[in-house]
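Per your request, structure below.
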């Protein structure tokens, strides 16, 4: 009885924590079902990974008719599609924005602004995998192995930067000197904000290092944590600033 009385406060604390976690998971599950987020997430991963342009376009148009899909999710899908297939024949971007003009009157303006800021002519590197022999070989091997989790197919471009820095192969410009030896400690600050995918990638690196699997210790920082809504707000401010 004495032992029970001594342990009861800790037991009650743990019980309360478990109850909160169960409630949180239940609410998340409800939101996923309510807004069809699994299907949306799968399509997002397909667009930014190795999805075919025509299939991605057809899937996006099919989702337009689903009343469960939120405006924010539609905008995100269209932006990803625009960034990935901007210069591809048959991308039909204008047709998509025209189709959605009544429900989303600002969509065409948002797409134009994002492409002017981060389109193919503005990006210093290929975010979606180039056509070099190495890139094609990597995609071929990935296709043979299959995908373990369709919801985590994409890796942020930050992965390429960290790996190049770790091996001493990063371009000279981002460094203070031309001597680029292998590094064990990396500090990254992203002006404009950090995405949750980038944060998850850095966390996985640090967890591997903590488990004795090697790799650099990475500290990631930025102006803020970005989600779709805050990202679009940034572009609204960007457009207003350019107008001034």
């Amino acid at each position: 009885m004495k032992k029970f009385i001594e342990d009861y406060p800790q037991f009650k604390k743990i019980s309360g924590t478990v109850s909160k976690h169960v409630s949180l998971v239940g609410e998340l599950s409800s939101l996923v079902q309510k807004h069809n987020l699994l299907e949306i997430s799968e399509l997002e991963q397909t667009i930014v990974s190795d999805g075919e342009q025509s299939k991605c376009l057809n899937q996006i148009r099919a989702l337009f008719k689903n009343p469960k899909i939120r405006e924010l999710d539609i905008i995100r899908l269209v932006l990803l599609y625009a960034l990935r297939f901007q210069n591809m024949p048959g991308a039909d971007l204008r047709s998509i924005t025209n189709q959605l003009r009544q429900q989303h009157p600002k969509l065409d303006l948002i797409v134009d602004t994002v492409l002017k800021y981060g389109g193919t002519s503005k990006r210093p590197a290929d975010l979606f995998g180039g056509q070099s022999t190495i890139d094609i070989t990597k995609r071929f091997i990935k296709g043979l192995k299959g995908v373990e989790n369709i919801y985590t197919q994409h890796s942020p471009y930050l992965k390429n930067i960290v790996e190049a820095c770790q091996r001493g192969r990063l371009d000279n410009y981002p460094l203070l000197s031309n001597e680029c030896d292998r590094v064990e400690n990396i500090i990254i600050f992203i002006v404009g904000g950090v995405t949750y995918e980038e944060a998850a990638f850095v966390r996985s690196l640090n967890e591997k290092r903590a488990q004795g699997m090697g790799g650099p210790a990475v500290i990631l920082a930025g102006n803020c944590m970005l989600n779709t809504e805050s990202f679009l707000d940034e572009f609204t401010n960007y457009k207003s600033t350019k107008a001034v």
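The first strand starts at residue 185 and ends at 190.

Regards,
D.
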